[in-house]
């Protein structure tokens, strides 16, 4: 039975990885897009290892034992409580993560993670902030911005390039305290385990349900002294529109 578990676990994990990488985009819930080739190679390797193990052991995997070996195993099991299985029955639980990836992929991280982690403050520019570091925004239209770009300008842009402009930010809803809420994104360097929080507080609009993806249109809401750590990104909303969940939820790039 132990060999059955090992071989089938390898096969299920391999098929699960190939399923989320080749047939769907579900892998983007867990890792960066650039890691797709590594996941495909890992899936192929796991299937190959499972196939080699199955071929080596034959079918069924548990070959009939000689009478002497069976008797010895029975005697040993009688004294040690393992029985005929050759391993603990709890080993079957190893199938759970493999089958979960294959049939019920967990969702991407969302408001639960964002609400329990402090938003990573935008880093101060290497030199004095100004128009050279923050180019002027287009006038007379709604400017699509990433949360990272908006947050950097809101905190460090003493030149005030956000003033007088209507911007649109896209992210998921994160509830705050006392009825406040944020439009948020989680950004990763490698995988979901290293996710960093980006969020902008929204004023003047009722919060949609938590984790709903929205496009928030509005104007900059100055908070704190710009150019210092006291400033924080915030927006006075004029419109909030529900949007579909993006294919790559961790990619904080402004839509064209």
From TrEMBL:
Keywords: Membrane, Transmembrane, Transmembrane helix
InterPro entries: DUF1980, DUF1980_C, UPF0703_membrane_permease
Ranges that cross the membrane: 33-55
Pfam families to which the protein is assigned, alphabetical: DUF1980_C
Segments forming domain DUF1980: 162-250
Presence of keyword Manganese: no
Compositional bias ranges of the Basic residues kind: 71-83
Name of the protein described by the UniProt record: DUF1980 domain-containing protein
Upper classification of the organism: Bacteria, Bacillati, Actinomycetota, Actinomycetes, Kitasatosporales
């Amino acid at each position: 039975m132990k060999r059955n578990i090992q071989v089938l676990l390898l096969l299920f994990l391999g098929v699960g990885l190939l399923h989320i990488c080749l047939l769907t985009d579900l892998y983007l819930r867990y890792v960066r897009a650039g890691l797709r080739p590594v996941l495909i190679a890992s899936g192929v390797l796991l299937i190959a290892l499972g196939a080699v193990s199955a071929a080596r052991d034959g079918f069924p995997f548990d070959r009939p034992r000689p009478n002497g070996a069976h008797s010895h195993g029975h005697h040993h099991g009688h004294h040690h409580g393992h029985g005929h299985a050759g391993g603990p029955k709890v080993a079957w639980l190893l199938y759970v993560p493999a089958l979960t990836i294959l049939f019920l992929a967990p969702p991407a991280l969302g408001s639960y993670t964002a609400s329990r982690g402090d938003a990573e403050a935008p880093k101060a520019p290497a030199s004095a902030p100004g128009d050279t570091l923050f180019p002027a925004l287009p006038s007379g239209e709604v400017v699509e911005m990433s949360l990272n770009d908006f947050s950097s300008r809101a905190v460090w842009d003493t030149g005030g390039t956000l003033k007088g402009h209507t911007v649109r930010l896209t992210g998921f809803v994160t509830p705050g305290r006392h009825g406040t809420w944020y439009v948020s994104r989680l950004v990763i360097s490698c995988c979901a385990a290293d996710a960093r929080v980006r969020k902008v507080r929204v004023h003047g609009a009722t919060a949609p349900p938590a984790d709903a993806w929205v496009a928030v249109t509005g104007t900059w809401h100055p908070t704190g002294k710009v150019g210092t750590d006291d400033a924080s990104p915030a927006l006075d909303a004029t419109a909030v529109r529900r949007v579909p969940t993006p294919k790559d939820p961790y990619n904080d790039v402004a839509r064209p």
